[in-house]
Structure of Volume-regulated anion channel subunit LRRC8E:
Amino acid sequence: MIPVAEFKQFTEQQPAFKVLKPWWDVLAEYLTVAMLMIGVFGCTLQVTQDKIICLPSHEPRENLSEAPCQQLLPRGISEPMGDLRELSGLKNNLDLQQYSFINQLCYETALHWYAKYFPYLVVIHTLIFMVCTSFWFKFPGTSSKIEHFISILGKCFDSPWTTRALSEVSGENHKGPAATTAGRATVTVTTTAGPGKAGEGEKEKVLPEPEKVVTEPPAVTLLDKKEGEQAKALFEKVKKFRVHVEEGDILYTMYIRQMVLKVCKFLAILVYNLVYVGKISFLVACRVETSEVTGYASFCCNHTKAHLFSKLAFCYISFVCVYGITCLYTLYWLFHRPLKEYSFRSVREETGMGDIPDVKNDFAFMLHLIDQYDSLYSKRFAVFLSEVSESRLKQLNLNHEWTAEKLRQKLQRNARGRLELALCMLPGLPDTVFELSEVEALRLEAIGDITFPPGLSQLVHLQELSLLHSPARLPFSSQIFLRDRLKVIRIKCEELREVPLWVFGLRGLEELHLEGLFPPELARAATLESLRELKQLKVLSLRSNAGKVPASVTDVAGHLQRLSLHNDGARLLALNSLKKLAALRELELVACGLERIPHAVFSLGALQELDLRDNHLRSIEEILSFQHCRKLLTLRLWHNQIAYVPEHVRKLRGLEQLYLSHNKLETLPTQLGMCSSLRLLDVSHNGLHSLPAELGLLQNLQHLALSYNALEFLPDELFFCRKLRTLLLGYNHLSQLAPQVGALRALSRLELKGNRLEALPEELGNCGGLKKSGLLVEDTLYDGLPAEVRDRMEAE
């Protein structure tokens, strides 16, 4: 006997696959087992027991046209037993071998093929049904997706984060009804408090019922760090799986194909079984030409298992009919509903996660199958499709990782002396940040989409906010909180249109620093949001690719004191709007592609500092017009291509700082000595070969930078500048340092490295403010100084 377990491999699947088998597949599976048992039972009988028993017919040869069993059958049924005894005396004169020969021969030639092979057909058809049912679980193109989906589904179902997310929603949903029920309970107490009324006792028994209705929100489970990381990994897996599976519909197509094949198979089986089931007969007539061997040519045979096979056939047909009905219902289900689209509308309404997206193709089809098993799987799986849920998880993980104590350790004073908290490259903003009420400056860099919570109002000392590639949304309540408190804000983004609009409504803002590009089609217009609300703005810094000064700058012309435009090499063409900035004190036009000093600058009567760094200035003949800027104190013309300084520089008698480094100067005009107020002169990184003696007239000069030039000697008059504190002479061609350097008693920093000096004058000892730390020179030269000089320099 063949055990049914041998066929188990045809239907064996992983236990987890059961979630993708709806009730009709489960019913069909049981039906195939029953049909397989029928087939195996029939095959066992065929193999182990006699198939047919034949007896020779004694009719004369001329009557053989009539079937040999046609006369026996009626007599065998209707004639009395006495007549049968009269026939029992006939002898056939056949031995056992002849009977066996006749039985085998008649079985092969006379018995209908359906009666012979019915059990084998049942087994074959059932195996085909089994293969069709489980083929999509085995086919490489579909099994990998199914296994991946089942793996993710199980993890999502068991994840503690799923329970927490749904519990939070459940708690929010219960909050309203609970309060309402409590209110109703209070009303009930008031109306039933009066004594002596009829039915008072009944009302007192009913009174506690609202307490049963009021249910506490389910306890929210706490996630440890490991569980949080696992949930985070699940979100990434779900995203990638969704993108992969939604691309095609191979699962849906394969399922339909195997279902259509089963229906066609069912119809074929049903038709030919109903046609041939009548061929299973108890008596079988057999005519074979064996007269030379047995002496008989006609036999009447008995198919011993015909009655049993007939019953099994009808039973098998019944199972096939039920199986076929389930297949037809499945086809109706497949084509009646849009199974390539799946909507989470009910889940969105139930959980409150309105951002759960609808899915399509194979992803949708598998979710429809899951719903036939248990819709709770889809609900829990949907948690990992929600960006809101993901953001909550990220927030929770952030709060676990960045505790208030850990954040407090990162606090430090910034350049302005404010207590600053700097966070960089985090997936979000920890809620624990808002527990540090002492924070005065908050710097957020490369942090994902930020939404400031109401807890922002706890930062009562916050005055400075930096958002560097960190887009942020600010609720209206938080805008009101920051509107008059925030003094400084820095925004850095890819394009300036990404700057949040709430920034331009901060009335108390004093400094606004924006960095980003205008789109190419808008760069020439350089349109910026209106600054009218920023009535206290004093500093505006804009780093972009603007083609002109934004017109909205004039909105703050009455109180803007410092304007910085950094154009990263893009040419700034229109500067006429600068004339309206009457209160401007500091102006920076950095890397704006300027070839001349803009004439609009000379109209700024209140200007004190001008920085034209990293432009293409070759000539500064317009420097004469700076005499109209009577308050100008600092002029930075460094990092340009200036070849000479015009004589008109003498008109800048009030200038205190002049930066001309990183240019192409070879000489300095003698008229420079007439800038009597000059305290700082930086002409380093040029090509100067000599200095005019008139520099000695700069009696207020305190800082002189001459490094990285080609100076071979210094004029003695230079040492008349007795207020010099810093003298930078490094990397020139000096072969000696004049002893007059000892006259610079206020000198505290002297750089001499990179020259051709052989020795240092001992008069350096007269420079009382010069210490070893302020003397930058080769060690060999320093060691050549007299010991008492070195001791004086090394003394504290």
Observations:
- The chain has a mean pLDDT of 82.
- DSSP finds 21 helices and 24 strands in the chain.
